[in-house]
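Q: what does this look like with LQESDW3C bound?
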Amino acid sequence: MSSTALTSDSTADRIRRRGLMLVLSSPSGAGKTTISRRLLEQNPDVAMSVSVTTRQKRPGEVHGRDYFFIDPAEFNLMVNRGQLLEYAKVFDNYYGTPREAVEQSLRGGHDVLFDIDWQGTQQLRETARTDLVSVFILPPSAHELERRLTTRAQDSAEEIARRMAKANDEMSHWSEYDYVIVNHDIDDSVIAIQGILDTERLKRERQVGLSEFVRGLQAGF
Ligand SMILES: Nc1ncnc2c1ncn2[C@@H]1O[C@H](COP(=O)(O)OP(=O)(O)OP(=O)(O)O)[C@@H](O)[C@H]1O
Ligand SMILES: Nc1nc2c(ncn2[C@@H]2O[C@H](COP(=O)(O)O)[C@@H](O)[C@H]2O)c(=O)[nH]1
């Protein structure tokens, strides 16, 4: 191997990638959580942003894994201290993204996955547009959405009715997103979003050190 080739190889090793923020939004019950879990299983290097919320814990939910369940006073404190990257009121409860964990993952070159609503996505778009990749997930039909909310068996009939009534509001923001998928089949949806992630990772502007690598490469010709 020539010394030029050695130099080029070691420079190529120095190409690093800036982490991206992959946001999934949808009306409640369309499948964000299910898709997120699958994506995290097949991408152990991706970090999930665990939100804080003032809503009550559902059966089976774990503090620190599904959410950090906090009271409204604590939530206000986090807002006032600037500890949330974004926050919103959704279905009468407050939800927000803790800033520090996300910034730490991005600095380390890790991608971060978010399950947040359209209000939060709008806020991230204003503050982090170049890092943001947003995907809107549509249900195949209103009937199927209601079936999914009901068979999930996590919310009362009143809560399900409230979420169905709000579905149109959330869906009216579909065209603000970079990508839109209809979640018919879970396997197909996961494959589609994995494709988005793989493609976005290759974007020129996300590859740190690329200019230096190309300069070194050109010097060898
Ligand atoms: N493609 C699919 N086909 C059939 N069922 C699905 C599909 N995707 C998700 N589900 C089911 O629909 C229910 C709701 O899914 P999930 O909890 O992932 O929705 P969500 O968008 O995260 O809801 P929320 O916004 O309320 O957190 C779950 O029981 C899940 O197993
Ligand atoms: N703006 C934000 N929205 C969030 C956040 N965490 C979750 N959510 C959204 O809330 C609804 C309801 O969630 P559920 O767990 O009560 O069913 C759903 O649309 C989530 O995407 C957040 O940090 N910020």
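The first helix runs from residue 3 to 13. The chain has one domain: 17-214.
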